[in-house]
Structure formats: structure tokens, C-alpha cells
Amino acid sequence: MQTTHKFGGCPWKQANYNYGDGIIGLHEEIEHFYRYILPTPTEHAVRIEVVKRIESIIHELWPQALVEILGSFRTGLFLPNSDIDLVVLGRWEKLPLRSLELELLRRDIVKAGTMRVVDTAVVPIIKFTDSKTQIKLDVSFNMSDGIQSAEMIKQFSRDYPGLGKLVLVLKQFMLQRKLSEAFSGGISSYSLILMCISFLQLHPRDNFHAQANLGVLLLEFFELYGIRFNYAQIGISIRHGGCYNRKENTFIGSKQSALSIDDSLQNGSDVARSSFAIVSVKQAFQWAYRVLSQAVYPQGECQLRHNAASSSILGCIIQITDELVDYRAWLHENFDHLVVVESISPLYGQINGAAAYVTLASGAVEQRIYQTQPQSVPAFHHLSNICPRHESSSSSTEEPTTAVIVVSSDEMDVCS
């Protein structure tokens, strides 16, 4: 059973931080959630080690095969309990899913009871949990489109600095409501990211620099897809700067049509064609919009204030379970030996707590982590009842530090 009794459900909150009220406080919490949920060097090293073990087994079976990392691990937009997506590229008359399944079972790689081979899907896949690290993996064959998709997302992340922060909050939101799997009718991570990209592309305020107010953006995302978006008649496309398309087929049977998202890498392909539970997704977004609106724009004197350690605006819609906190601690207790820390001279960085990984020619992974002086929180000027919050001079006293960690082992406008 998933609980939040031990850690309170909001471990990203900083006890000694003086959070602002309303939308400013929500922005600050999103920033802190992002820094909390980012992979630590140990968590990154563990995933590299898992990939290398699986890759070595595949190369023993098929020496000429190529193993590529896909999905959230490749883009960096993964939660601590996210799957690792791998694709095996090679030549076979028939995809060797069963051969790999048997070898993984023989090597005791798979946690008992977790092996599942989905060979009837559009994309045949092997799903299992690694017995050593408890990390889930999805392995497919000869589906190289995922590589292009991941590289495209990485480029959009550079274009829109707030994209990754919104995505990780939304992924946690969808995950805890069991709406994050396309095979069960929910929205896949890829679809969710494309929805975020479209939202940013078509936003009326074209100012999504690094200082954009994330609280406002999150609220507006929920408002768009929870209340305003016409799922029955409108489809999403991120091509050519983004647009909405009128849908040809507006209903599935007698029900409202599912979410439709154009796959920019394959003409005529609908990324979200399996999302038949879009009504539940829309209701979840609508609920989140109303809850957050009440929290950041309350009536009278009932405004939720962040000076109390127990209060959390972001915690109204997402929670981190005790089990996940304990799992991350377990990973560090058992796998810290995979990480080697090398001290270097302090430098001012520009990443603000984000992790940047560079794979060296030797196969090692170099991660640069920067912590800069706290910056003032961006105000949202569109709403007249929200005033900018000015940081006190004491907020910039923290000394900037730098570390390099070397991980051992590698209403809507519609397009015509």
C-alpha cells in the first residue's frame, strides 16, 4: 500500500525556505520539486549499470546488434521509478523476443513474476523488472523512430527551458492516478510531452525564457486541456511552430473521440490513438485546475500560506510516496560505490540545479551539477490581483559551488 505518513508526501519542500504566497509560492515549489526529483549521480549510475548488463547479454546472443537507449532516460525527463526503454537494432527474419526472454530468465536478470512479452502489439515489446535494482525495463526491436523522437524532445527542451520542469510535475500527476500508460487508455509520456510542447508553442505570451513563472504555466496547462480544449473536433500538431488541426473522425463509436496528436516524424500517424480514457484524463486536469486555482487565488483571508512547513500548494495535486523515498535511499545505500566524486575549483554555473550528463570517449559519464545564487522569482503580470514578490537581500548569500561527478561504467486557432 502506498503511503505518505513517514515523509509527509512533499519531500521537495525546503524547511527553512520562506515561500511566497499564491502563484509565486507555486512557482517556487515547482522549482524545488524539479531539483528534488532529478536523478542523483548514484541513480544515474545505477541505470547505466543496468543498461550495460542487458547490453552485454544481447551482444553475446547477437554480436552485431546495436542497443540504443530511448524514452525518458535518453531525454533526461524521467522520474526515479520510470522505466528504461531500450531498442535492439539488427537483422532477423522474425523478431527474437522469445529468445531474449529465455536468456534473461536463465541469467536470473528478471525479478520473479515480472516478465511479460507483448508480441501482438503494434510495437512488440519485452517488459520486466531487473532483480538487482528493481528498475523496470521495456525492450523493443528495430523501432528506431524512438531515437529521433528523443532527440527532438531534447531540442525542444533547449528551446523551452521550462518544458522539463512542467513535464516532470505532470508525469508525477499522471502516474499517481494510473493515467500514464497508453495500453490502459491513458496518455503515454511521449503524448504528454507533445501536449506540453504544443501548449508552449501556441501560448499567447511568447516569453518562455528561463524566468517564466512555472506556477502560471502549470495552471494554464490544466485549464487548456481540462476545460477549454475541444477533444472531439481538434487535433494537436507541433509541426512548423505548432497548430491545431480539425479532425476528420470526431467520435469513436458513440463516445467522444480520443485525443489526437500528429506524429511529426511519421505522416498520418496519430501518437495518441490508444488513449481511449481521455475523458478520465480531462476530468483529472479539470480537477487539478480547480484545486490549484482555489489554492493560489482564494477568496477572503483563507489564502494558503507557505510559511507553515506543513502547507503545500503543489502538494494539493501531487504526492511523493514513502515507498519512493525509501527506494531512493536504498539505491544510495547499495550502489553509491558506482560513483566517484572528483573535486574541482568552484565555478559559477548556468544550469540552476539541473544535471548535465556527457558521455566521454572512454565510456564514462561525466555529470556537471551547478548551484548558483538564488534568482528572483518571475512575477506574472497578466493577472491584476497578483503582485511580484521581491526577494530579500538575504536570499542571495548562498555560496555558489560546482562539482563534477564521474560515473564509473558509461478560443482556438485551427490550421487549414
Report the β-strand fraction as a percent range: 5-15%
End-to-end separation: 50 Å
The average pLDDT score comes to: 79
Helical proportion? 25-40%
Outline the low-pLDDT stretches. Answer: 249-256, 300-310, 343-411
SSE order, as H and E? HHEHEHEEEHHHHEEEEHHEEEE
Largest sheet: 5 strands, mixed
Biggest β-sheet: strands ordered side by side in the sheet = 1-2-5-4-3
What is the β-strand count? 13
Estimated structural class: alpha+beta
Q: What is the rounded Rg?
A: 22 Å
Helices, by number, come to 10
Shape: globular
Mind explaining what this structure looks like?
The protein has helices at 22-37, 41-61, 71-75, 97-106, 145-159, 163-175, 189-201, 214-228, 278-296, 322-335, and strands spanning 66-70, 84-89, 116-118, 125-129, 136-141, 234-237, 243-246, 251-252, 255-256, 339-342, 355-359, 365-371, 401-407. It is an alpha+beta fold and 416 residues long. A five-stranded mixed sheet has the order 1-2-5-4-3. Helix 6 packs across helix 7 (189-201). The radius of gyration is 22 Å and the shape is globular. The protein starts with 21 loop residues before the first helix and ends in a 9-residue tail after the last strand. Residues 249-256, 300-310 and 343-411 have low confidence and may be disordered.
